[in-house]
Design brief:
By secondary structure, the protein is mainly alpha-helical. Helix content is 82%, strand content 0%. It is built from 9 helices and no strands. It has helices at residues 4-13, 15-49, 52-66, 70-83, 90-115, 119-127, 132-162, 174-185, 188-217. Helix 3 (52-66) crosses helix 5. It starts with a helix and ends with a helix.
C-alpha cells in the first residue's frame, strides 16, 4: 500500500533533481517544437509550391524521417554524426533529432492545409501584385493556421513524450532523474505516477495554448 507521508518526504528531499529534470524536459521540448515547426513550414511550402526536383528531394526527406523510429534518430544524431566530425553533446543531439522528426510531421500538416486552400486565392493575390512571401503572410498563412492547429498540438505533445527517449544518451531529463531517485528510494509506482502527472501538465499546457491561439485566429461568425 502506498505510504503517502513517506513518499512526500522523499519527494521533498528529491525536489531539486526533479525540478532540474523537468526544466531540461521543457527546454528540449520547447526547442524541438520551435525549430521543428519553423523547418516544417519550409518543408510544407516546398512540398506544395516547390519545383519538381525540390519536391522529390523534400518528399524523400519526409518519408524517410517519418518512417524512422525516433529512437533511431536520437542514436544517429548522437553517435553517427560524431563519426563524420560533427560532435554534438547529448542535449544538442536530442534537440536535433526531435526537431527533425517534428519537421517531417509539421511539413505534412502544412502541405495538407495549403493544398486545401482554393488556388483562386493565390491567383487573386498575384493579380493585385503581392509577392509570394506576402501572399503566404497575408492570404495563405492565416487560413492554413486554423487547419494546422489541432494536428500541430498533437505533434507538439508527441515531442514531449518522445523527449523521454533522450535518457538513453544520457540527457538528464525528467524520466532519467526519476529513475535515479527510484534506484535510491525504491518507490517505483509513486515516482512514475508523479512523473506521469508532470508530463500530463506539460501537454495540458500545450493543449490550452493551442486552444487560445485557435480562439484568437477564429473567423468571427
Amino acid at each position: 500500500m502506498m505510504d503517502i507521508a513517506h513518499f512526500l518526504d522523499i519527494l521533498w528531499l528529491a525536489r531539486i533533481p526533479i525540478l532540474k529534470g523537468l526544466g531540461v524536459t521543457i527546454s528540449i521540448s520547447l526547442l524541438a517544437i520551435c525549430f521543428g515547426t519553423i523547418l516544417g513550414v519550409f518543408v510544407g511550402l516546398a512540398l506544395t509550391y516547390g519545383v519538381r526536383p525540390l519536391r522529390w528531394i523534400v518528399r524523400g526527406y519526409t518519408d524517410f524521417i517519418r518512417g524512422t523510429p525516433v529512437l533511431v534518430l536520437v542514436l544517429a544524431s548522437y553517435y553517427v554524426l560524431g563519426t563524420i566530425g560533427l560532435d554534438l553533446g547529448p542535449f544538442q543531439a536530442g534537440v536535433l533529432a526531435l526537431a527533425v522528426f517534428c519537421s517531417s510531421h509539421v511539413g505534412e500538416i502544412v502541405r495538407g492545409a495549403l493544398q486545401s486552400i482554393p488556388k483562386g486565392q493565390t491567383e487573386a493575390a498575384k493579380a493585385i501584385g503581392l509577392t509570394f512571401p506576402q501572399t503566404f503572410a497575408y492570404v495563405l498563412g492565416p487560413q492554413a493556421l486554423r487547419q494546422i492547429l489541432p494536428a500541430w498540438v498533437n505533434t507538439a505533445a508527441e515531442m514531449v513524450k518522445a523527449s523521454t527517449l533522450l535518457s538513453i544518451i544520457g540527457v538528464a531529463e525528467l524520466l532519467l532523474r526519476t529513475q535515479e531517485i527510484i534506484s535510491r528510494a525504491f518507490m517505483s509506482l509513486e515516482f512514475y505516477l508523479f512523473a506521469g502527472l508532470l508530463y500530463f501538465v506539460i501537454n495540458y499546457a500545450i493543449e490550452r495554448f493551442g486552444r487560445y491561439v485557435e480562439r484568437k485566429t477564429a473567423v468571427p461568425s
